[in-house]
Amino acid sequence: MTHLLSNLPQLWPWLILLGALGCGWVGLRRAAFVLLAAWICVAALTGIISTMAMIAVILGLGLAAWLRTASGPLAIAGWSTLVLWSLAMGAHLFPGFNNPIMLDNVLSGPNSGLFTLHLNADKPLVFFALLLAWRPLLEQDRHRQTVPLLLSVALAVALFPLAIASGALAIEFSLPDWFMLFALVNLLMTCLTEEAFFRGFLQKALTARIGMAGGIAAASLLFGLVHFPAGPAVVVFATLLGAACGLGQWYGGRMRYAVLIHFGFNLTHLLFFTYPGPA
Fold first, then answer.
1. What is the CA radius of gyration of the chain?
2. Long-range pairs for 157-164: beta carbons < 8 A, 24 or more residues apart
3. Measuring CA to CA, which of 57, 80, 119, 249 is 20 to 30 A from 90?
4. Cβ–Cβ contacts within 10 Å for residue 66, how many?
5. Taking the alpha carbons of 97, 58, 90, 141 in that order, is the dihedral positive or negative?
6. Which pLDDT tens digit goes with each residue over 232-245?
7. What's 115's DSSP letter?
8. Which residues, at least 6 apart from 6, have a Cβ–Cβ distance to it below 8 Å?
9. Averaged over 156-173, what is the pLDDT?
10. Distance between CA atoms of 99 and 71, rounded to whole angstroms?
11. In terms of domain of life, where is this protein from (predicted)?
12. Which residues, 6+ apart, have CB-to-CB distance to 104 below 8 Å?
């Protein structure tokens, strides 16, 4: 909390974006887009996004708004374009976004490796595009099935002993002074955005066409593959975590269960194990 308060002069524009993400997640669409519009204005005035980046944002969100009621061959082309736009935003491929470093090579504990945290202006925009374009994003698909849902959580938890056995993690208890900043950014900018794309959109679209097993497997594999820059081992663990989140979404009936499993995993990793890995 101390770290969060001491950095408010630098953080305040990002609190607007975090507020917009939170409002969107709980279904306050009008408030979410009012805050998003305010943040875009502030971001443009403070140099967080350039003119070129602003054009990319407007085109992407405009396309998303059109897709909500589009149909036919043009809609297929539009959805393909939106998927590519979302992947490019998530991979930080569009120029003109200033994603400042908020934590620079910090340690969560003495046995952990160095960790750097960026405040991303591009990646969270994927959530708002999907909120505009994809009606089923926040909708309840089916009734919650408690036992299979708990098994989904158990699958995520089981990844920790597997990581310890493989040497990817070690046990280390820590509560760094930047914990609150990490929690806010990780929940809303990382977990919410990633789960909106991979589970709320991609998995729902795929399971409607190829069934539960195929849809969850495909979305989980793609989730793992986008972590390839971190190495093959991370791809495997991310794919398994994606499967746990996918099952959580399916048996919980809402995207929020996938978000909470993902966030719970990341939070447990930080608090009880070397983060992001051993030194």
1. 19
2. 157/265, 157/268, 159/237, 159/240, 159/241, 159/244, 159/265, 160/268, 160/269, 160/272, 160/273, 162/237, 163/237, 163/273, 164/273
3. 249
4. 15
5. positive
6. 889 999 999 999 99
7. E
8. none
9. 96
10. 35
11. Bacteria
12. 116
pLDDT tens track for 11-38: 889 999 999 999 999 999 999 999 999 9
pLDDT grade for 160, boundaries at 50, 70 and 90: very high
Q: How many other C-beta atoms can be found within 10 angstroms of the C-beta atom of residue 128?
A: 23
Partnered with residue 103 across adjacent β-strands are 117
pLDDT of residue 221 exceeding 70 = yes
Q: How far is CA 122 from CA 56, 99, 245, in A?
A: 10, 8, 23
Structure tokens, 102:
């908020």
Q: What is the pLDDT of residues 250-278, one digit of tens each?
A: 999 999 999 999 999 999 999 999 999 99
CA 201 to chain centre: 12
Roughly how many angstroms between the first and final C-alpha of the chain, as a whole number?
25
The pTM assigned to this predicted structure is: 0.95
Q: Give the residue carrying structure tokens 């955005």.
A: 193
Q: Which amino acid is at 177?
A: D
Distance between CA atoms of 105 and 271, rounded to whole angstroms? 17
Residues sharing a CB contact under 8 Å with residue 164, sequence separation 6 or more, in sequence order = 170, 171, 273
154 has pLDDT over 80? yes
DSSP annotation of 137 reads G
